[in-house]
C-alpha cells in the first residue's frame, strides 16, 4: 500500500513584511497591513504589530497570522504571570528572552511566525531583536522579516551598515540616524518593497517608541500593481458605457471590483 | 550524603498530552514539548523544518594546546540560501570558565546551551564547587540523547578549564560525546581542519595558537558559502575564558593577501595613457 501524503497542512502563509530600526533613544517598528492567502487578499487593514505593554516592547510578526495571534496571546499571559510574580513589567531584553523560549517550546510543531521585537532597553537606548521561527534570536540595530525581507534587508544593510557587535575592539551598533530620518527611511523602504513584492502593500503602520511614549503613524501604500491604470481604466470604461446601456456600466464596475481583490492583477 | 541525581532525570522526554504547565517550574526536569499529533512524525518534521527554514550553517573549531584551549568560530547564519545574519554569536559563554560552540540549528544550540548553563549553576550551588568539563558535556549529551531522532541539529564543543586542566568535548544531537584535542564542526570544517591540522603543535604560545585559529576560520569562510561574517577567537586559560579577537573575514583576506600595489600602478598608467 503506497504511503498517503497529507493533503491538509496546518500552516498557511499570510504574507506581509515587518521592519524595525533601533536608534540612540528611539525605536521604529513598522509593518504593512495586507493579509493574503495564495493569490487572494483577505484583508487590506490587518495589523501585524502587537504592543506587549511591557515597558516599551512592541512585537511585529509576519507569517501565518493564526499562529501569530496564538503567540501574542501566550506572550501576554506569560507576561501577566511575570507581573504577578515580580511586581513589575518586563524589560525589553527580558521579553526578548521570553519570546525565544516561547517559540522554542513549540520546537516540534513550530509557530510559523517570523518576528521582530523592538523596544527600549533599561538605559533608554533602542534595541531590536530578530528571530527565526523556532526561537533563535539576536540583538541587532535593524531588521526586516517576512515576504519582503529579502528585498529590504540589503537596502538597510547599505544605508545603516552598523559594525558587527562581535568585532574586537567593540564598536557601537546603534544607528546614528535621527528619528525623523529613520521614519523616512522606513517609508521609502516599504514603498520600494511594495513595488516588487505582491504580498506587501495597502497601508503601512509605523510605531515610534520613545521614552515618553508611543506614537503611531499610518501611510498609504500601493494597493494594486498599478493604481493609476485602474483609475484610467475605470474612466475609459465609463466613457464607453455612456454610449451603451446601464448594464454595461455595471459590468465594468464589477470588473474593477474583482481586480481590487487580487493582489496580482494584469493591469 | 544525598547524591546529586539531577543529571539522571533526563532519561525520557514527557510526551505532550497531560503535561503540566512546566513553564513556571524552572528547568530542573526535561522541558516537555508540544508534539504534533500525526501518524508520520518524521515526515511532518521534515516538512515543518523545510518551511520554517531555521537558521544554520557554520564553521567552528577548538583545540587544546600547552596554554589551554583555543576556541574560534565564524558568525554567519543562513536560512536556506539566504544569509539571515552576519553577526550571530556562535561561541556561547556558559559560565566564566566554560565555552560552548554553536553549529547546526541556531535555536537548538542557543536553547540547549542556556539550559546547560542553568544546570551547571545548579550543580555549583548544590555541590559547592564548579562542575567539570566532563560533567557538563555529559549533562548536555544525555539531554540530547533523550531527543534523539526528533530532528534536533546540534554539533557543539564544550571547552573549559577545570581541576584536571584544559578539557574539550564534542557533543552532537545523536547523543554522541567524544573527548579530544582538536575538533572542527560545521559545513566549513573540512577546510578548517586542513589548515588547523597542518599548523598544529602542542607547544605553541597563545599568540601563535590564536593566529592559527583565526587563519583556519578565515580559510573556511573563504571556501564555504555558509560561513562568513566575523571570525571570533577565544582563549580558555586557568583563570577562565577571554576573547582575544573579532575580525571581519573580508578584512582578514586583504590582511593575509594584500593586493600588490605594482598592479594598481600599472592600471593607473594605462588609464592615464588613454
Automatic annotation (TrEMBL), chain A:
Localization terms from the record: Nucleus
InterPro entries per record: Ntn_hydrolases_N (IPR029055), Proteasome_sua/b (IPR001353), Proteasome_suB-type (IPR023333)
Cited SUPFAM superfamilies: N-terminal nucleophile aminohydrolases (Ntn hydrolases)
Main location as per UniProt: nucleus
Domain of life: Eukaryota
Keywords recorded for this protein, A-Z: Cytoplasm, Proteasome
Name of protein: Proteasome subunit beta
Organism: Brassica napus (Rape)
Organism phylogeny: Eukaryota, Viridiplantae, Streptophyta, Embryophyta, Tracheophyta
TrEMBL record, chain B:
Record keyword Iron present: no
Localization terms from the record: Cytoplasm; Nucleus
Pfam families to which the protein is assigned, alphabetical: Proteasome
Positions of the catalytic residues: 58 (nucleophile)
GO MF annotation terms: threonine-type endopeptidase activity
GO BP annotations listed: proteolysis involved in protein catabolic process
CDD domains: proteasome_beta_type_5
Cellular component GO terms, alphabetical: cytoplasm; nucleus; proteasome core complex
Entry annotated with the keyword Cell cycle: no
Catalytic activity: Cleavage of peptide bonds with very broad specificity
Keywords: Cytoplasm, Hydrolase, Nucleus, Protease, Proteasome, Threonine protease, Zymogen
Record's function text: The proteasome is a multicatalytic proteinase complex which is characterized by its ability to cleave peptides with Arg, Phe, Tyr, Leu, and Glu adjacent to the leaving group at neutral or slightly basic pH. The proteasome has an ATP-dependent proteolytic activity. Component of the proteasome, a multicatalytic proteinase complex which is characterized by its ability to cleave peptides with Arg, Phe, Tyr, Leu, and Glu adjacent to the leaving group at neutral or slightly basic pH. The proteasome has an ATP-dependent proteolytic activity.
Family designation: Belongs to the peptidase T1B family.
Record note on quaternary structure: Component of the 20S core complex of the 26S proteasome. The 26S proteasome is composed of a core protease (CP), known as the 20S proteasome, capped at one or both ends by the 19S regulatory particle (RP/PA700). The 20S proteasome core is composed of 28 subunits that are arranged in four stacked rings, resulting in a barrel-shaped structure. The two end rings are each formed by seven alpha subunits, and the two central rings are each formed by seven beta subunits. The catalytic chamber with the active sites is on the inside of the barrel.
UniProt-recorded name of the protein: Proteasome subunit beta
Species this chain originates from: Brassica carinata
